[in-house]
Write a structure and sequence with these properties.
This protein is mainly β. It contains four helices and 19 strands. The strands form four sheets. Strands 10, 11, 12, 13, 16 and 17 form a six-stranded antiparallel beta sheet that branches. Strands 1-2-3-7-6 form a five-stranded antiparallel beta sheet, with helices on one face.
């Protein structure tokens, strides 16, 4: 059986698995309303009999309550009839692998026609589950609807791969799937919230706050050696590209840049402005890609949206023990 036929058969199997759980997958971790349609939109894995060397099937968690609003991006491996299908879910840590995958369309066949969005037909974001590792990659479409990219998972652990794309004639989607790098792992704590990030001698400062359920203006200023960088180079159709991920469930939030190079009003730095809308209170990781002197660098931040509820307090023994009148006197026997 040729590759498209095999993929098509497997995709039909996925439709059976995901048909009842579309919009759910693993339960969404943080509470709160989902984002508006401006944000790009848990996964279940196929059984070994369905996918050969694919990971063992994991039963999805119960579906979250339906709100009638879109689910944040990246929480589902299948949406609107499209399914993200990697050829393998396990990669050896520290070893560069030719990672291959397809997007199976509503017709059960690999998608071969994509719109160009932000300079590329598909963006692949790979992060560790603790959000300490981040990669922004651009696979090549090799034929028969198969994407290929050199991928290295730096350490043992669980990673989330997001495919951000727009099929020709369809709306933009972000599908996600977990990847495994076998071995002992020690997840790192989420980095503390900060307004400043440093990378390769560059300092990036963040101005603005994330407000749950509202469009938030974020401005990032790039400097080097104490001087503002006013000659940033275009990257993916803008002077910067920002990815936001919600800590806990890794909901993927698409962020829009303000202006574009060559529009006559957007300067090449030092400030880059974005508009983001987050669906809930909680901690988010922001990853800014910017290009200067021919090299793309990534600055990362941890930002809190809204105030988190105070932790529940343990009642004192006296408060926890009912009084004699409450436990006996007010009840009939």
């Amino acid at each position: 059986m040729n590759t498209p036929a095999r993929l098509g058969a497997y995709a039909l199997g996925l439709v059976v698995i995901f048909g009842g759980a579309l919009g759910a997958g693993n339960a969404v971790g943080a509470s709160g309303p989902a984002p508006t349609a401006d944000a790009h939109p848990i996964h279940a894995t196929p059984t070994a009999s369905q996918a050969g060397d694919h990971a063992t099937h994991t039963d999805p968690a119960p579906a979250p309550a339906t709100t009638g609003k879109p689910v944040p991006g990246g929480l589902q491996v299948s949406q609107d009839g499209y399914t993200l299908l990697p050829q393998t879910l396990t990669l050896q840590p520290g070893k560069t692998t030719d990672f291959r995958f397809s997007v199976i369309g509503p017709d059960g066949k690999p998608v071969t026609a994509y719109r160009t969005e932000h300079g590329k037909r598909l963006h692949l974001i790979v992060v560790s589950r603790d959000l300490g590792s981040f990669q922004h990659l651009h696979p090549e479409l090799t034929g028969d609807g198969v994407w290929s990219v050199k991928l290295t998972l730096p350490e043992a652990g669980t990673y989330r791969a997001f495919a951000d794309f727009a099929p020709e004639g369809g709306r933009g989607l972000t599908l996600g799937v977990d990847l495994q790098a076998p071995g002992a792992q020690e997840p790192e704590a989420l980095p503390a919230t900060s307004r400043t990030a440093t990378v390769d001698g560059y300092t990036v400062t963040l101005d603005g706050d994330l407000t749950p359920g509202a469009s938030s203006r974020l401005t990032l200023k790039v400097g080097k050696d104490g001087h503002p960088v006013a000659d940033l180079q275009p990257y993916l159709g803008a002077y910067g590209h920002l990815v936001a991920l919600r800590a806990g469930d890794l909901a993927y939030l698409h962020v829009h840049p303000d202006g574009e190079p060559g529009d006559g009003k957007t300067p090449p730095g030092p400030r880059i402005t974005f508009y983001a809308e987050v669906p809930s209170r909680g901690d988010y990781r922001l990853f800014l890609d910017f290009q200067h002197e021919g090299t793309v660098r990534t600055a990362d931040f941890t930002v809190r949206a809204g105030e988190l509820p105070a932790p529940a307090t343990t009642p004192s023994p006296a408060a926890a023990t009912p009084s004699a009148s409450a436990s006996h006197g007010d009840h009939d026997h």
